[in-house]
Amino acid sequence: MTTPPEIKAVIFDFDGLLFNSEPIWDRAYDIFLKKHNIQDRPEYWDKMTGMGLREAVKLMIDKFGLEGDPKELTEDWRRIFYEIFLKEKDVLMKGSKDLIKSLSRRGLVIGLTTGGHTEVMTKQILAKTGILSYFSLVVSSDDVQKGKPAPDVYIYAVDKLNLKPENCLALEDSANGVLAAKAVGLKVFGINADKKIRAELEKIGADRVFQNLLEVKI
Fold it and tell me: What is the CATH number of domain 22-85?
């Protein structure tokens, strides 16, 4: 019987995993649609969840009839999100700080990947919530060619950490995130309060699934 590879690094997703920001993205999405005078297309929600923001904007240009420069539209959507998010308190998911501190005490490297935020803004938010010092690496999909579900952010993260993929564990709440990490060969834990989504995460390859970060044992 072979010994499982040793986990040396844990890489968190940002939205919906480390931060309870998905409801705020939903509100920002509604405002963004109204501002640009386009109709919602609920049939694309599952595909867009966990997708890099640039990729979501491109999808909306192709499928929703959204018009404009993709870069400017991405920044506009972010501005709307931050107008709401930065006023909120207690934005960290339950159990996140305790888990991060536990991993740090054990000497594990801690990283983060995000498809919705720039590296600079992500670090500002981590600093505001008192956890920036725990993170050795922050990777934004803005810094790679393609966002999730493409594997680019994880290829970049593993390379920067100078580790093998099998020595890294990704924590993801969406199908797009799980697919991105598994494509690179990382072990992946799927974490979502929604039973239906957990079943989907397991189906597409998550090694284990949990309802929340309080349940996670690494």
Answer: 1.10.150
